[in-house]
């Protein structure tokens, strides 16, 4: 084969994105192709910086080109990303590409811990990430990010006062805990809580974000409805433990998103506290709350299983000390990084396959 741009594109169109099941050329992922006798260079623009298949895709490109051209010169492949979105044009949060709800049925299953670590793990990949602590009645973000007592600044933009989110570990944060002492938040009535959440969405300078995670309160409440009625939600992640009582509640949480009038895609299930493991003996696993409950829940509802997180003393300590576990190298960090990859991957698949997200209109 002669070394021309056209022929190179033809060869690269035999390489598929395994998740999106289409070839890189028709997906528009090959950009800035330059061919000269001494060098061939191009960019592969992936759908997320957290793409777990990055190396595999690169080596498939190299192999396909080496096979097709005898006289292949130096190859310069630059792997980059542009996070996809499926948002329709709504005036709220115009710069935010994906809004992801992190929900659970039961309280205390580790939803906030997973949300915090996912947010940091995504930011570590280079994505622009925000986290809203929508758990108005029990905000935990200030503690988990070691920013208790901090108060966000207010700035004037186009004649309107807007709140500047607090930034920590590369994540933009907003929590009711920054605005009122935590004790006073618990006496809020439902409508006040809903209007506070609307403020977090509309009156905060979120700017450009690839992923805005919403740490929802446990259960199914007004807050959940407010959220889906206020912004177009890309998808929901359900956190559960493998225990029977948690699974029963997680089922309610999951089916709430799948109700026809809400219809928010479920990106998958995370099984937290999947087993206990002493940090110094990571091969010893004790299934305190039962085994594979989250996996079975995902199978039953035909949604992806995103991964499992063990119970590790360090995760609890990290939460309390305000230094998320994913920041420390080790088994738990690996678990949260691979969860973040799974979530980002499911968002990319969702954006490629499903309709645009709309704000939910609920008729009384
Ligand atoms: N995998 C884990 N290993 C050890 N401790 C964990 C793990 N996941 C969560 N925890 C601890 O369990 C407690 C509850 O976690 P978390 O606050 O994240 O739950 P939650 O589901 O958000 O609760 P709620 O929304 O009801 O406040 C915290 O003390 C947290 O540090």
UniProtKB/TrEMBL annotation:
InterPro entries: FSCA_dom_sf (IPR034904), MIP18-like (IPR002744), Mrp-like_CS (IPR000808), Mrp/NBP35_ATP-bd (IPR019591), NUBPL-like (IPR044304), P-loop_NTPase (IPR027417), YlxH/NBP35 (IPR033756). PROSITE patterns: MRP (PS01215). Pfam families: FeS_assembly_P, ParA. Keywords: ATP-binding, Hydrolase, Iron, Iron-sulfur, Metal-binding, Nucleotide-binding. One of its GO terms (molecular function) is ATP binding. Residues 5-66 form the MIP18 family-like domain. ATP binds at residues 105-112. SUPFAM superfamilies: Fe-S cluster assembly (FSCA) domain-like, P-loop containing nucleoside triphosphate hydrolases. In the C-terminal section; belongs to the Mrp/NBP35 ATP-binding proteins family. Homodimer. Binds and transfers iron-sulfur (Fe-S) clusters to target apoproteins. Can hydrolyze ATP. This is Iron-sulfur cluster carrier protein.
